[in-house]
Target: Receptor protein-tyrosine kinase
Amino acid sequence: QYRTLRKYYENCEVVMGNLEITSIDRSRDLSFLRSIREVTGYVLVALNQFDYLPLENLRIIRGTKMYEDRYALAIFLNYRRDGNFGLRQLGLKNLTEILQGGVYVDQNKFLCHADTIHWQDIVKNARVSPLVVPTNSSVTCQKCHVSCNGRCWGPKEDQLTKTVCAEQCDGRCFGPWVSNCCHRECAGGCSGPKDTDCFACTNFNDSGACVTQCPQPHVYNPTTFQLESNPRAKYTYGAFCVKKCPRITMPCPLATCVAHYVTFIKVSCYLGFPVCVRICCVSGNTSPILAVMLLAVFLLKWYVIGCVPVGFLNIQSWPENMTDLSVFSNLATIGGRALYSGISLLVLKQRWISSLQLQSLNEISAGNVYITNNSQLCYYNTVNWTGLFRANNQKVLIRNNRDPKECTTERMVCDPLCSDSGCWGPGPDQCLACRYFSRGRICVDTCNLYEGEVREYANGSVCVECDSQCERADDYSLTCHSPGPDHCVKCLHFKDGPNCVEKCPDGLQGAISFIFKYAEANNECHPCHSNCTQGTPLIAAGVIGGLFVVVIVALSVAVSVRRKSIKKKRALRRFLETELVEPLTPSGTAPNQAQLRILKETELKRVKILGSGAFGTVYKGIWVPEGETVKIPVAIKILNEATGPKANVEFMDEALIMASMEHPHLVRLLGVCLSPTIQLVTQLMPHGCLLDYVHEHKDNIGSQLLLNWCVQIAKGMMYLEERRLVHRDLAARNVLVKSPNHIKITDFGLARLLDVNEKEYNADGGKMPIKWMALECIHYRKFTHQSDVWSYGVTIWELMTFGGKPYDGIPTRDIPDLLEKGERLPQPPICTIDVYMVMVKCWMIDADSRPKFKELAAEFCRMARDPQRYLVIQLPSPNDSKFFQSLLDEEELEDLMDAEEYLVPHAFNIPPLAYTPRTRVDSNRVRLSSPLFFSPLLLSSPLFSSPLPTSLLSPLLSPLLSSSLLLSLLAYPHINSNRVNPCTQNAPLRGHSIIFHYITFYYILSYFIVFHSILLFSILSYSIQHASFSPNLFLP
Model:
């Protein structure tokens, strides 16, 4: 027993089956069991006398087969009754998983610590699996080590067992935290969170990765709605996925490797034979329907062509609807190189088979014949089996089949045309040998020598057909003597020498010249005389006709080629002349009429470097338009000289996108300088990026300002969504601050414009900001407007944490698994649940479940109207930043004009005027002292010292007050243009809107002056009439 155990399991790591350790005495060395890591069946340890079980590296027992159909681990009766020795300690300190079955540990007199093990944690289905582990009270056992907390495999410190996983883990773990959970396919523990870090696999191991199932032979194609062959298909061998089955097994159609031949039909074939097939995977309890299907697929090849098996034919199960073995009708030889218990032909207990019908079988090279217990089988007793054997020591054992007398009674006997050698079944085609003659496989009583449509001759006892050129004889004489056209008694058509032919040779190519023959009266062919020319015109006609055909074909080809050439030219001409007016697939998209301004290098002046990256450097600079005296602060982005053509193309793509976008919350492209190093010129944002701004002023920023920023970013992204542009890199670092109340989105280096029919953009390689990206972007590089919503949520989180780093301290490679497990960024301290729920909605796994930017803008607008309700912070907003102060301190940037103020008049093609610095007007002061309002001081002047009748003042003052009020309302948007309300702000007025406001302004002003004149004239007239007028009023 010990030798067998050592032979099978020494240097073994995975036991494909059961591990049974029984009847081993105490002196044996069992250290070879330490190599075992996995057992697929059950582990049985019984009737042994050793004191220690050294299965120290066993991690998993799968329990595919169970002891007594209940237990995956059974340990009992391991002691000697008349001695003081037996099993004292289980060395299973790494056993962490029993997938199926229970545990039975009982009647081990000296065993300790088994009852301290937390078996409910080791057994996967502990609630339904039986656990029999009684407490050992017969001996005094040492206590577990202090560090083991009462659970151990032995008394030492390294033999502890404990549960350390978090409750959220659905399996094992490699640490106490939620992020330390093993992959769901792991069994027995792991060293990391991936499916490649498992110690063992719950289902299958595919090249080191634990998977639910091996790659299947066929996969479903959702495009074609069909199953297609899978080039990555693998076979299942135990719990492993293998590309090829091991040599001791055979591959089967269900993508499994079986370890032995099957009981349905066992055939071993010569592998070099081109049509020979091997059937290996139908189990003994296979349904008859499946069996018939496999026979139809595999065995009918033998039925048509044949196969020579070099092994044995073993039939122990057969479908009910098949009463013979006619599928093997072409089987000619059974080689017998491999035998089944010395048998080469075995037909056992087949109650449906009535005849063998192996009519082509003529040799059994080796092995015996065993045909028994076939209750319906007849004809077996007629076969001369010894005539099929090659060796003298071959035997035949036939018994307990149907009684030959019953077969005779039911006329299940050989055909009368069969010889005494016997037959395989009913009919003249099942004879081992014919009594008279044979025609192919069928026995006949005579050959068609003198009658019949097809005449024959007798070649011994075989009937052979005469050649088709032989004439059938009608006088009871033979038609031919042998096969071939040269053995005919009389020819059907002509005779050319000894051969019968259909016609005499006429112009056949000979060794030297063409051969011409003619037929005489007796239909014999003779050669023409050498001087005969009767065949010459035929040759000439043939040559001329052949040349004519060649010419016609050549002309046809030339005409066809010419027509194709003309069609191509006409098509090209129509294309160039734009005859195709209507587009084939009109998109309905409006043309992009954005203007791209080309700047000269002499117009730009660089001041200092603001930052640099992998592809370029950003400078602070001044733009002085040619022929003008204005100075405009700008940011100049310059591409590095060492970059390649691809970087130039991406740089110009960014210029295209920025030039196409015009919105108050998007950084505007002022122009492009096509110098040797391409330069993009944009607005200069004096306060820098929003990330640095909130970090610098985190103690001064109030809730109103934060919510305003959320609204402005959402409106900018909503504009991008309307223009079908995916930003792909939205973050607080890519939002610039123009003023504390006005921010703009920038950095369109990764942005992509979608076509009309596109819903997503699939990116290629390259670095990406993983911690700001949605899960579908990380896994599939698929970018949509909804993936920008995810980035928006992270950006808002950065603002609410005043520049906090998302997922700080977590490696980038662990982010996908973290998101799949449901973890998200925590709720910022200043945020209420309302604001945090908006962020959480942005981080939904399903992209369609995330809100749209329009909804986000409306939601934050609602919150901005009551900021203290949604953000728990009340601080003033900062006026300027360190970055802004550094810009103001530059002497070169004095007396500057903002880029937007400069570009507005240029939109109307107005010639540039001399620049006068604009002074900012205090809106409060304008409201009190503006001349556009009617002043009540006018009524208190001496001019109104005498009372005026109300009937006179009312019709005069009403239009005056109305015109003044309307004029002040028209002027209000221009006076208060520096104030920003994120929920109502629109894009700056352009085109006809500004022209309309200016015309209306001057019209109302004229109206105002006319009515003042009328009023003054009326007052003077009234005063003169009532002698209340004093000329001194107009004296100095």
In short: The two ends are 138 Å apart (CA to CA). The first helix runs from residue 2 to 9. The CA atoms of residues 49 and 86 lie 5 Å apart. The first strand starts at residue 14 and ends at 15.
